[in-house]
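[job 4417] fold queue: 2 targets
>>> target A
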Amino acid sequence: MSPAPNLPLAPPSVHRRALLTWLGVFPVITLVQWIIGPHVAHWPLVARTFHLTAPAVPTAVAFVVPAINRFVARYTHR
């Protein structure tokens, strides 16, 4: 028996959300590191981390993770 169409779906488990978030954040951070890494390699660790995460985290949170969540929801909530 499937749930009624008007009932909201249960949110994914914390483990699934963590995995999906990691799947979205990892490639963005890797890409940004690949692009800016050679230019900031001699900077102090905190400055490098700041300049790496400043573009990566908002991009991942605003675009990549929601897209992954929509993709997964399309196939898991049929």
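>>> target B
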Amino acid sequence: MVARSGDLAARFGGEELTAVLPNTDAAGALHLGHVICEAMRVRMLPHCSNSLGIVTVSVGCATMMAAFGQLAFNT
């Protein structure tokens, strides 16, 4: 799913994961979110602490395209 050489999948918190996808627009990020949700849905992984009894996933997307010469972070 996160397969290009510049892509990065990482644990972001206790139960949170993130995918950093350079050069990916909002439509591409949303598409990958749908792919991830469907992949989890068909696996039906057991999770006894979840009221549904399976592992669930929530996906959100945020994108940013910096303009030439624009700093990503101001100090």
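[job 4417] complete. Note on B: The chain has one domain: 1-64.
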